[in-house]
Amino acid sequence: MPQPSPNIETTGQFEAEADAEKAFDESIEACQCFSVEREVWGRHIIAVKAGECIGKKFRIDRLLIPNERFINHGWTAGPIGIEIKKSNVKIGKPISQILDYKSAIFQSKKLGYARILPTYIFLFPMGRVHGDVASILAQNQIGGIEHRNGYKNELVARVGEVSLFSIDINTGTIDINKNAFRTGYKNGSR
After folding, report:
1. Are the C-beta atoms of residues 39 and 120 closer than 8 Å to each other?
2. Where are the domains of the chain?
3. Global confidence as pTM
């Protein structure tokens, strides 16, 4: 008999989504690595499910445009999407929402209304996941981002079981795992 999937939930101590948004915004602004755009509208450009409409509108919580500092540390994957939820939320629905975002293009006001297709989209706050769930998320370039060592200390972003980048907000240290950029590009049987 198959074993049920474990309940994987968002991490942290955020009782409301607004608390999680505030903590994320404070941390991401303190790291000085991104231009941040909030509540960015986008539209479906690919119908990936039966009955889905091309042109359906979506709003992603944050769009992060890497600045020169982050790029000089080795980031080559372009803009990043962020979906934010409160703590202790099962990740199924937010990940489904993010999968919809992966077939959408977002319009950035800060970049002169340029259309952006984020390579990676992260759920905040979400810790490391393992096994089949990690593999599916990695294949779709979806991951989690959380405070590793407490509130406002260090942000770590993971895709699958691999750390993609970490930013120590206190010291300004940026660690980008360039080998992780290959995560999610494997095709065919495994």
Report:
1. no
2. 17-182
3. 0.88
pLDDT in tens, the chain (190 residues): 445 456 788 888 899 999 999 999 999 999 999 999 999 998 888 765 555 566 678 899 999 999 999 999 999 999 999 999 999 999 999 999 999 898 889 988 888 888 889 999 999 999 888 888 888 899 899 999 999 876 678 899 999 888 999 999 888 899 998 877 765 555 555 5
HEC states along the chain? CCCCCCCCECCCCCCCHHHHHHHHHHHHHHHCCEEEEEEEEEEECCCCCCCCCCCCEEEEEEEEEECHHHHHCCCCCCCEEEEECCCCCECHHHHHHHHHHCCEEEEECCCCCEEECCCEEEEECCCCCCHHHHHHHHHCCEEEEEECCCCCCEEEEEECCEEEEEEECCCCCEEECHHHHHCCCCCCCC
CATH number of 17-182: 3.40.1350
What CA–CA distances, in Å, run from 28 to 65, 141, 156, 157? 11, 20, 11, 12
Q: Are 128 and 158 in contact (CB under 8 A)?
A: yes
Burial 55-70 (b: 16+ CB within 10 A, else e): eeebebbbbbbbeeeb
